[in-house]
Each structure stands twice: as structure tokens, then as C-alpha cells.
Amino acid sequence: MARPTKNGLDYFPLDVHIFEDEKIEAIAGEFGIKGELAVIKLLCAVYEKGYFVVWNDLTKAKLLKRLPGTSKDLLEQVVNRLVTWEFFNKDLFNSAKVLTSKKIQDNYFEATKRRKMPKPTQYVINADNNSQVKGVNVDINPQSKVNKTKVNKTKVNKTKASETSITKNSEDSAVRYWLNQVNPAEAPFITQSIQHWVNDFGGQDEIIILAIDDMLKHGARSYKYLDAVLRSWENKQLDTVEKVKRQLESHYAKPSNKTKSRNSFKQVTNYGETLYTYYEQELRFSPNMTFDEYVAKKRLNERDRQALEQYVHSLGG
């Protein structure tokens, strides 16, 4: 009796410098070691199936089981970043929720060239880096060529509209504002992270610009500072320009009777800054952790909680 045909791989090549790749470094910078581990587990899931995996609920559930301590939201964010930065093929993900890439496919076909089986065509990327949509439609829903053309045209138009929106909202406003006001030679993964914040706030560039202005008012010029402010606003559900402006107005509207000892305030602020250093490290590994969850986890007393909260507020949060 013939053995069943094997589709996946038992082993796959992994570049020893993968963690020095700028895309993986960006993942590590935003999500910490959980992000790096998620990348490796995603590659294992792809090669286990062959040269692609469909990003559906079953795949997500399997990955979450293999990544203890990783939330579904964090995993989705990692995948979205990898697609945006084209670690995985963007066209196939947007059209069919498929995770693959030209490099993955080259590795797979090289490893299976001795197998006595016809070369598959489903979701194969051409040498010109164009995905073969023909393979996508055959397996999903075999319809007439006219319907396929309409579907493809719709997808192309949606993709173009999306790209135009992102370019208009991010490149020409929030990202461009950062480049003009902070660092004209900023690293690509920083500008991409700013773009992601724009998307997370529903495309409202003005919110990100307000955070940049607030950062500059405090004499800071680092993305870490901006990220901390935006995380604070996100946790407080400041999801409109009006809410953010009210928050900033109340923060800067200091009554004249607040002429207390500045030295004592400075001491509290410095202590809060020390506490914030540890808080920031924790957020790197658990980006979805709320302020109250952190206080409970670290069992901070009321004095430490107030000092940390006061410092977070001084960042514009």
C-alpha cells in the first residue's frame, strides 16, 4: 500500500541572522520576545502545511495554544505588521487571508524537488512577485471568468483606495509631521509604527500630531515617549480629537494656587520616572496590559501608584 503524499516539511532553513533583520527587530521593539517567538511559530505553521497557511480561526487557535501567555489581539497585531512590512505577501493576505512569501516558496520547492509529485500552483507567487490569483479562485468558488474579473477589479480598487487613504493620511500628515519636526532621517520601522498608530486611532492623524506636539512641549524627541503617550490615551479611550484636546487642556490648565514646593514635586516626578522605567519594560513584553493590571501585578502601594500615575500624566496621558 502506497504511503500518503506528504505536503509539509519536517525541517526548514532558518537564517542565523533572522533576529537582526530590520523587520524582526521592529517586531521585537514593539512586542518584545513574544513577538519574536510568534514569528518563529508562524513560520513553523506555514512549513508544516507546505508553503502557505490560511490565516483562519483554526490556525489562530492552534498558534495561541503554542504561544502561552500571548493574547489573540497581540498575535493579530504581529501578523498585520509582518504583512504590512511584506515579510508575508500582502496581495495574497488581503485577497485570501493566506500567509506565504516568495522566500518561503523558494525554500519549500527546493526542499521538495526530489518528491515524485506535480508542482503545485495554488497561491504560488510568480518570479515577478505577482501572486497567482487563479489558484485562489479555483479552490474558493469556481465561477465564470466574468465574475472573477469583477471580483478582482473590486479587490484592486479597494486596495488602491486603501493605499491612497494611508498615503494621504499618514505620509502627508502624521508621519510627515514627525519627519519635519523631530527627525527627517527617521528609521523606516519608526515611521511605519507611527502609521500604525494613525490606523489604530481610525485614521485621525491629528491625534498623533497632538501627541507629537505634547512630546515636544516636554522637551522629548524619542519615539518611546510618543508611544507611551499614545498607549495612555488608548487605555483611557481618548479616541477623538475633541477628547484628546479636553484631556490636554485639563492637563495644562494649572490653577494659580498650585505654588507648592517645586522641589517636592520634582522629587515625586523623579521617583515616578524611575517607576516608569520598569513599567515601560513590562509593556514591552505585555503591550496590552492596562495601568491597573500592572499595579496589581507588581503590588504597588498607594504612594508608588500615585507617583507612577503622576509621571504618566506628565507625559500627556
From TrEMBL:
Domain Lin1244/Lin1753-like N-terminal: 11-104
InterPro entries in the cross-refs: DnaB/C_C (IPR006343), DnaD-like_sf (IPR034829), Lin1244/Lin1753-like_N (IPR025400)
Highest rank taxon of the organism: Bacteria
Domain (DnaB/C C-terminal): residue spans on this chain: 187-247
Pfam families attached to this UniProt entry: DnaB_2, Lin1244_N
Similarity-based family: Belongs to the DnaB/DnaD family.
Classification via NCBIfam families: DnaD_dom
Protein name listed in UniProt: DNA replication protein DnaD
Organism ancestry: Bacteria, Bacillati, Bacillota, Bacilli, Lactobacillales
